[in-house]
Amino acid sequence: LQNNVTQSTTACFEPSLDYVVTKIPRWDLAKFTHVSRDIGSCMKSVGEVMAIGRTFEESLQKAIRSADPSFAGFAPLPGCAPADDAELERMLQNPTDQRLFYLAYAMLERGYSVERLHALTRIDRWFLHKLDNICAMHNALRRPHQTLQTLGRAQLETAKRLGFADAQIARLVSASEDDVRAARRQLGLRPFVKRIDTLAGEVPAPTNYLYTTYNAATDDVAFDERGTMVLGSGVYRIGSSVEFDWCGVSATRALRELGRKTVVVNYNPETVSTDFDECDRLYFDELSYERVRDIYELEGAAGVIVSVGGQLPQNIALRLHRNDVRVLGTSPESIDAAEDRHRFSQILDRIGVDQPAWKELVSAADAEAFADSVGYPVLVRPSYVLSGAAMNVAHDASALRAHLELAASVSPEHPVVVTKFIRGARELDIDAVAYQGQLIRHAVSEHVEDAGVHSGDASLILPPASLTPDVLRRVKDIGAKVADAFAISGPFNMQIIMQPGASGAPPALKVIECNLRASRSFPFVSKVTDSNFVDAATRAIVGEGVPAPVDLMQDAASWPYTAVKVPQFSWTRLAGADPFLGVEMSSTGEVACFGKSPAEAYLVSLLSTNGFRLPTPGSAVYIGVDDLSEPRIAQKVARHFADAGYTVLTDTPATAKLLALQGVKVVEFDYANRRTLRDAVADSQIDLVVNLAQRRPAGKADPNYAMRRMAVDFGIPLVNDQRCAEMLVDALDALPAGAATALYGKQPLNIRTPVDVKSWQQYLDMRK
Fold first, then answer.
1. More confident site: 693 or 2
2. CB 595 within 8 Å of CB 562
3. Could you read off the pLDDT of 681-734 as tens digits, one per residue?
4. What's the pLDDT band for 141 if we cut at 50, 70, 90?
5. What does the pLDDT look like over 567-585, one tens digit per residue?
6. What is the spatial distance between Cα 603 and Cα 236, in angstroms, rounded to a whole number?
7. Which of 65, 148, 548, 599 is close enough to 175 for a disulfide, judged by CB 3.0 to 4.6 Å?
8. HSE-CB of 352 using CA atoms within 13 angstroms
9. What are φ and ψ of residue 605, in 5° steps?
10. What angle (nearest 5°) sits at the alpha carbon of residue 172, between those of residues 166 and 177?
11. How many Å separate Cα 89 from the centre of its chain?
């Protein structure tokens, strides 16, 4: 086997490394209510980062920042400040996702020694001494009289060699990041580019696998290619996963087809984009403003593409643009206008595109007055966030105040907007590509769930099942107006609320969000329409080989197939987390399947997710509701399963009465007693839980929380949305006799798949 790095030695050659790699998991536990933050033998991380340096200190600090851009490095976090030593020692002794930051707090704020920490944590002293090196520099930089002007070259260079970022140094010496950058440039300090060399220079390594370090004196490459930079998606996390890697790889391949040299920046070892044969140069490095600008200036790059890697590259686009970095495609000024909730809303008003009533936050009192004027519920929306972070629906004033505080903490530099939340509406997604403000590709998907479920957690139907040609035309017109108003050249995505019209009037269409970048549904719509949206977007971004406009949705009603994308959740790994769907995303993956009808495609997709199965014959279905659940749907679900031969159970006499069905049994569990709960559930023969509650519970005592959590903990399939429950029973009703993945209800079903098995290409060929 040949060693692909050296291209001359064999793979069995003993490696000799002159670099250090640090891999850190990414946890998103803060997104979930009531979740345990302990980490142990059950994997809870949703992604990982890999950082490369020439010292442990350098690679560790790079890895910490890569895991979350809000982390400065090895330093305390605001949320990791214990009340006393007893709490601190408890957090040090018990592994959690925040343990590293409690270590930083103990060393930097409480002066814990290496020996004391070793005794508490049993972490090897070698690692603790390395962390102590970082702390020593941290303390030196934050001395009372230390300023940027008094910082000498030797000390600044040592800090950079220990992995300190410009922004990290700036905070410690009370300066701006740009001032620190200017100072080190004036002193001749810059990172050097080194190759990944598994033989430490013993044999020439021609690979394009690169990283930057301050622990070097020469570069390993010549900067003579002037490639086009593609910024990757960074760490996989809730809201940004392999779908953005697909976008990045597709963009890189399109650029190479156009004859352009490519430079990819990413630090995720799980991705295809970090395979060094996918591009001409791969920088396994941070996606920070500092590092991207360093690489851009060293490479003399032809430009930077920021719109295929999700939210992370978008967040630095404007700053790059304002510091003479050539950002290709849609102007970062337009990106900023779309990300800023207030400016975006003003532009929609100007171009005559409808939106829910909104108000920019000035104070909590003003927000409450607005909510009183339009009526609860209202939606709190921060700016520049991914996957709906800190976005929440408030049903009353106390919830509004709590959500405002959270939103302000997540996005402190940008305004928070409060909008009217529309109940009972359906959400539409439009994924599109434009060139110089003209729409050239678009696809419209329909959510199964009502508005209020994040688009990343929603089930998408393409082509949409219930939209009239007039609605599709109006959605396209909205997309064209937005593309023109923002002068878009590249990908964009919008979410639109479809509110039923009164007395037979056409539905109202209201835009609630627009992202001037590729979205997580771009791979889905590309594969369903057999049109690579990112390839078209990349050509629009660089202005070469731009495809002619085409309306992919023109004959959507006549497509002989439907595709449905459903979310995959990881509730079983998140002890205590509430399996509740809301406006902040919580799914960790997705599944998409084709079918001859929406019902068929939905059922196959749902059965393809991990953890869902049809209830076995003779078992029971447990149904729960709250005051916001639709009685019609609850009754429909209960009637379906009763007719199919299942026992219908519920948790209260009031719910049993609401179901309006003979034979419904009320079973109340003692959820607090875990010892008896399993036996009680087994005795009840529950094999499906359908919880239709719409209100997020305040605490663990809520019976609907307990019901959902019971289902997850005992491995019982759970349906936790009323529209999904209705679509499931419709799909089961539509099954032909003798078709299901397992025995179901009263029918003698004996084949293993509910539909004919066809390949992706066979479905596409059905349209020809």
1. 693
2. yes
3. 899 999 999 999 998 887 888 999 999 999 999 999 999 999 999 999 999 888
4. very high
5. 998 888 888 889 998 888 8
6. 28
7. 148
8. 5
9. -65, -45
10. 30
11. 33
- The confidence score (pLDDT) of residue 438 equals 97
| Residue 554, CA distances (Å) to 478, 492, 495, 529, 558 in order | 16, 20, 20, 12, 9
- Taking CA atoms, 47 is separated from 57, 58, 155, 571, 609, in Å, by 22, 21, 35, 16, 19
Strands 209-213 and 192-195 turn out to be: antiparallel
CA 51/CA 62 separation, integer angstroms:
6
Helix, strand, coil distribution of the chain in percent, nearest 5: 35, 20, 45
pLDDT tens string 540-564:
999 999 999 999 999 888 999 999 9
Neighbouring CB atoms inside 10 A of 503's CB total 4
What number of other Cβ atoms are within 10 A of residue 160's Cβ? 21
Side-chain-side CA neighbours of residue 565 (13 Å): 25
Distances (CA, A) of 133 to 58, 153, 180: 11, 18, 21
DSSP structure class, residue 573 = G
Instruction: Say how far apart CA 441 and CA 538 lie, in whole Å.
Output: 12
In the block, tokens 């510091």 appear at 323
64 or 4, which is more confident? 64
Alpha-carbon distance of 587 to 460, in angstroms, equals 14
The reported pLDDT for the residue numbered 441 is: 96
Classify the phi-psi angles of 188: left when phi > 0, otherwise alpha if psi is within -120 to 50, otherwise beta: left
- Which of the pair, 417 or 732, is modelled with greater confidence? 732
Q: Is the pLDDT of residue 198 over 70?
A: no
Query: Please, which pLDDT band fits residue 362 given cuts at 50, 70 and 90?
Result: low
Answer yes or no: are the C-beta atoms of 452 and 583 closer than 8 Å.
yes
Burial class (CB in 10 A: 0-12, 13-18, 19+), 576: middle
DSSP code per residue over 50-118: EEEESSHHHHHHHHHHHH-TT--SSS--TT---SSHHHHHHHHHS-BTTHHHHHHHHHHTS---HHHHH
**φ/ψ (deg, to 5) at 510:** -125, 125
The helix or strand, by DSSP H or E, that contains position 154, with its residue range, turns out to be: helix 153-161
Scan for tokens 């490459």, then name that residue. 221
Q: How confident is the model at residue 68 (pLDDT cuts 50, 70, 90)?
A: very high
Eight-state DSSP code of residue 40: S
Residue 366 DSSP SS3: helix
Q: What's the pLDDT band for 408 if we cut at 50, 70, 90? A: low
Give the residue, 293 or 311, on which the prediction is more confident.
Answer: 293
Give the pLDDT confidence score for residue 366 in this predicted structure. Answer: 81
Q: How far apart are CA 570 and CA 593, in angstroms?
A: 20
Q: Beta 460-462 vs 647-650: how paired, if at all?
A: unpaired
Helix runs in 322-437, H state only: 332-339, 341-351, 364-374, 397-410
Q: What is the pLDDT of residues 507-546, one digit of tens each?
A: 999 998 899 999 999 999 999 999 999 999 999 999 999 9
What is the secondary structure of 712-745 as a DSSP string?
HHTT--EE--HHHHHHHHHHHHTPPTT-SSS-BT
CB-based contacts of 762, cutoff 8 Å, min separation 6 = none
What average pLDDT score do residues 173-195 get? 95
CB-based burial label for 713 (10 Å; 0-12, 13-18, 19+): middle
Measured distance CA(243)–CA(753) in Å, rounded: 27
- The two tokens of residue 339 are 């990300």
Both structure tokens of 216: 């070097």
| N-term to C-term CA, the chain | 45
pLDDT in tens, 222-243: 999 999 999 999 998 887 888 9
- Give CA separation, 262 vs 251, 273, 732, in Å: 10, 11, 49
Q: What is the DSSP pairing of strand 718-719 with strand 686-691?
A: parallel
